[in-house]
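Cross-check.
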Amino acid sequence: MEHADKKMDDIVSLCKRRGFVFQGSEIYGGMAGIYDFGPYGVALLNNLKAAWWKEYVQSRENYFGLDSGIFKHPRVWDASGHTSGFSDPLAECKVCNNRIRVDKELEKVGVTADEKMSEAAINELFDANRENIKCKNCGSKDFTAVRAFNLLVKSNLGDFTGSGEEVVYLPGEACQGIYLNFKNIVDTTRAKVPFGVAQIGKAFRNEISPRNFLFRTREMEQADTQYFVRPNENTEAYEAIKRERWEWYIRLGLKPENLKWHQHENLVFYAKDAWDIEYNFPSYGFDELEGIHDRTDYDLSQHMEFSGTDLQYRDPETNEKYIPWILETSVGLGRMFLAFISDAYDQDELAGETRTVLRFSYKLAPIKVAVFPLLKNKPDLVAKAREVFNMLKKEVMCEFDDNGNIGKRYRRQDEIGTPYCVTIDFETLEGDTKDTVTVRDRDTGEQRRVLISELGAVVTK
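Predicted model, tokenized:
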């Protein structure tokens, strides 16, 4: 199936039908921008996390793992610039009160709005293009003036008076915990510049218009690395990091033709340089998958100033003190999940029938092996199938399936993305083929008989 023929509606439908992703609080009507990962979705998500963690913590001597707390001191967000600069331009329809994100509406009519623009500047752009922008809810063109809407989500943590004088926020990004623990990591490990810190953590954004399924949500999980280098020794390391991130996606199964680079022309306040790896999302087109940023010494300098704590690094060989520069990679795991399931989604014809199949790499597949008894009303077949299932599940993620005929079970596992289906039939129990099973390959549909004693090696490659 050509990528251009894929439709996001089909992928969203499969995610619900096969237990990958559910709308948050669905039985109460749902919540915009909130999603729950179902049984197969959480398995895929965990496999993505494990592959990322293996790449950055297990496989590298100079990277260190971290899991910082969600709640942070309110001054953290002042130092990071989020209380003053973390906002989107908002306007409201005067007829139905529907809210729009102005920069995205301008983008739809071919006008680029710089995220660093003042309210006055973006209002001027908006006023010049009001005739081309309609409320998607009622069709009106009558909007309020644009105002900056801060995306941080407020909490009442520790506020027992209700005064709201010292607001505690949920994190707008997960990476701040890495900067806050920079000194702790240097003091308690063998970390020497250059070194990196890797973290998977939650972030929350009060998005004006959450949209495009998992692409833009109000609750997300981010996988971040921050690589600390000597000042002005960023160029070579930055290029290496960009190359490594691109190659990682391809190794895990994304097709190179569905990826491209985009360099930011208008940089956010903390960045010296910024590149995105963009993915060609079905129906949405190319958009940001992962950001790779040269943040210079902004973050540690800010936290040093606001906290009063010396965050300079002392070189153990030269005794020189300096504030390291930071090279960041940051990806939302929901977007990563959506890219991999979109790339894996396929429709083809097998044995004269059209089928839907998720062609995940073996490493990412939520279920590696499904085990079937040929008939569920034959106790000997079921018992033997259970024996094989219990053997395999100690090594890999398996599923036992005896519901429906074999053809329907194959189709169900194809839609889940299971690489191998193992069938225990009457030939397994007797004759020259005793203690062999049929192993069916997801991608080709080919079947072969394999000894049970060799099955583990075959299905785990």
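The mean pLDDT is 93. The first helix runs from residue 8 to 17. Passed to J.P. for a second look.
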